[in-house]
Design goal:
The complex is a heterodimer of chains A (238) and B (316). Chain A is of the alpha/beta class. Chain A is 38% helix and 25% strand. Chain A has nine helices and ten strands. In chain A, the strands form two sheets. Chain A has a six-stranded mixed β-sheet with strand order 6-7-8-3-9-10, sandwiched between helices. In chain A, strands 2-1-4-5 form a four-stranded antiparallel β-sheet. Chain B is an all-alpha fold and 316 residues long. Chain B has a single domain (2-6, 55-315), classed as ABC transporter involved in vitamin B12 uptake, BtuC (Orthogonal Bundle), CATH 1.10.3470.10. The two termini of chain B are 30 Å apart. Classes of the chains: A alpha/beta (238), B mainly alpha (316).
Chain lengths: 238, 316
């Protein structure tokens, strides 16, 4: 679903180089790395916001350069959830989640009955129906994060990227978020990549781990927490 | 949706009635039908159109600025776009550049000033990420242009100063019959252009990064918003003088009453209520005219400033 080939990633100067890596559909990948290791830059590159400095990078067979140019294509292929959603004044949860349908709307932004039903169903699936008419400013941190997940689900893209989605969540909401993601990838040709500092949570759910350290990405197989930490530290020491 | 649609419909109705009232109030007895005809086309109709177009246009440009800078306190006035128009107009009226008056005229120079100010603010918005910083730069810019205008006034003849002073107070009676089609054309173009941006405006509510992820050509939309604002604020300022607070207050009132960020509804509200607000101010000034004469700018500030202060107090 996401494929790197001799890809060089960075902002103005090279930061990460990836020789050969393919992320498959049907999986939730966890991107681990210390602060400053380049997780955000990698996510921004995948989101087509920052062009790669060299090599090839495709998402669902589309070269990232094409996705950067073609807005509707990009928005129908990649959804992005940032680490924090602050809520917006006068914007209800329903309106906010419906914004995820924007790539499918005409210029006047009219949301169709089908789109509205999709929003309601997604909210229901995430157990958020009771928030439908609430203002986004009035939500708790956990609710805000789950609601932005709903917005990304409604965008209905094969690739979903999340930047440290669990940072502001309590253990119960972290669990809910991860279960929702696992269910979502199981329902179609979809791939999720989330960056995280929560090694325990990722190990607990047996997520395939990608360690970003020393400008390299390494797939970690069958390691415990101690093993993961040592890989991250060793890479950073280089 | 139904409640919101009803509100807009009601607004349209009140606006229509206010137009009729305005037409009734500006009527003066005339000796012949021909004279009445001249009075209507030369004075009463342009005054009505000034109120409608300036109110609607300034509100719409305020809505766009608030969306672009993601700040409810933004507006063409606060961001210095009016100031740019005001400065070039001052140069024209006070600086004695007769060649400017002949080549590009009042409207051209005002539009030029508005576009230059918008471009300047656009450049500043790249460097200054925080909106408070940006608004401060806008206010400083307004203060700076004000000072230059003062210097120009000290050089100019009393006649020129008086002309500029009157323009600066804002008036709905300066638009001439021949100018109505011009203002109407610019206004219509700006409104149509912003209707084509509705989907992008809705996405911009989430910030420019998220708008990009939702497929919006952010750079193009940013430029479009500034161009529309300069077009509206520039042409309205040229014909009616700088009118304060309409662009700032009306969009805020719209979000508060409609409780939405759907820009189709907000644009309609701004057009209807903006027109109604300025028309009501003018009707009020006609009523008060027998006691004392109030410039339109004074009225909009008397009503707009306390409302904005209330909004700020409520938020903090």
């Amino acid at each position: 679903m996401i494929s790197f080939q001799h890809t060089v990633i960075g902002y103005q100067r090279p930061l990460i180089s990836i020789e050969n890596l393919t992320l498959e559909a049907g999986k939730v990948y966890a991107l681990l790395g210390l602060n400053g290791s380049g997780k955000s830059t990698l996510l921004k590159t995948l989101a087509a916001q920052t062009p790669p400095l060299g090599g090839a990078l495709t998402l669902n067979h589309y070269p990232v350069a094409q996705l950067a140019k073609d807005g509707n294509l990009r928005a129908q292929q990649i959804a992005f959830v940032s680490s924090r959603f602050d809520g917006i004044e006068h914007l209800s949860v329903f309106e906010y989640v419906a914004l995820g349908r924007i790539p499918y709307l005409t210029v006047f932004g009219k949301v169709s009955a089908e789109d509205q039903q999709m929003v309601s169903e997604t909210l229901k699936e995430l157990g958020l129906t009771h928030l439908t008419h609430k203002r986004t400013k009035e939500l708790s941190d956990g609710e805000k994060q789950l609601v932005s997940l709903a917005r990304a689900f409604v965008q209905d893209t094969p690739v979903l990227l999340l930047d440290e989605p669990s940072s502001f969540l309590d253990f119960l909401n972290r669990e809910n978020l991860l279960l929702a993601l696992l269910k979502w990838v199981s329902e179609g040709q979809r791939c999720v990549l989330l960056s995280s500092h929560d090694i325990d949570l990722c190990l607990e759910h047996n997520l395939p781990l990608l360690a970003l350290a020393g400008g390299q990405i390494q797939e970690l197989l069958a390691l415990d927490k101690k093993g993961v930490v040592s890989v991250l530290l060793k890479g950073a020491a280089h | 949706m139904n409640r919101k649609g009803l509100l807009l419909l009601l607004l349209a109705l009140v606006l229509l009635l206010s137009c009729l009232l305005h037409i009734h109030l500006t009527e003066v007895s005339s000796s012949s039908a021909a004279q009445a005809n001249v009075l209507w086309w030369e004075f009463r109709f342009p005054r009505l159109m000034s109120a409608l177009l300036a109110g609607a246009g300034l509100s719409l440009s305020g809505l766009l600025m608030q969306n672009l800078f993601r700040n409810p306190m933004a507006g063409p006035y606060v961001l210095g776009i009016n100031s740019g128009a005001s400065l070039t107009t001052a140069l024209l009226m006070l600086g004695g550049f007769p060649w400017m008056l002949h080549t590009i005229g009042l409207v051209g120079s005002s539009l030029l000033g508005a576009f230059l100010a918008a471009a300047f603010m656009f450049f500043v918005s790249w460097r200054v990420q925080q909106t408070t910083g940006l608004l401060l730069v806008g206010l400083m810019f307004a203060s700076f242009t004000g000072s230059i205008e003062s210097v120009l006034q000290s050089w100019a003849s009393p006649e020129q100063v008086k002309q500029f002073f009157l323009w600066n107070m804002g008036s709905l009676q300066q638009l001439s019959a021949a100018q109505v089609p011009w203002l109407l054309t610019l206004f219509t173009a700006a409104v149509l252009w912003s209707l084509l941006l509705i989907r992008s405006l809705n996405a911009f509510v989430l910030g420019q990064d998220q708008a990009f992820q939702l497929g919006v050509r952010t750079q193009r939309v940013r430029l479009s918003m500034l161009a529309i604002t300069a077009l509206l604020a520039g042409s309205i300022t040229a014909y009616c003088g700088p009118i304060a607070f309409v662009g700032l207050a009306i969009p805020n009132l719209g979000r508060q009453l409609l409780r939405t960020q759907d820009h189709l509804l907000l644009i309609l509200f701004c057009l209807l209520f903006g027109a109604l607000f300025l028309l009501a101010c003018d009707i009020l000034s006609i009523y008060l005219d027998s006691y004392f004469s109030l410039p339109i700018n004074v009225l909009t500030s008397l009503i707009g400033a306390p409302y904005i202060a209330y909004l700020v107090l409520r938020r903090s």
